[in-house]
Amino acid sequence: MAEEKRRAKMERLRDLSDRELADELRKQRERLFSLRRENVTRQLENTAAIPETKKEIARILTLMRERALTGGGA
User: How confident is the model over 4-59, as pLDDT tens digits?
Assistant: First the structure.
């Protein structure tokens, strides 16, 4: 089940253009900042959201790096 979700996320990211991927990266980084702020102020209920967001950022950066190395982009 978890593997299917991860694959679905990657497929969704692969379908994005370079610009959309950069926008998604910006959104995820803003979300991580917000989650960290909520965690410090003890307002965050789902602390598992922080590592999930970090992994999402890593997926995006990996995909951007793959595209840069292959010279391809959507």
Answer: 888 888 899 999 999 999 999 999 999 999 999 999 999 999 999 999 999 999 99
d(CA 44, CA 24): 22
27-57: b (≥16 Cβ within 10 Å) or e: ebeebbeebeebeeeeebeeeebbeebeebb
Structural class in CATH, domain 2-70: mainly alpha
pTM metric for this prediction? 0.87
Query: Is the distance from CB of 61 to CB of 25 less than 8 angstroms?
Result: yes
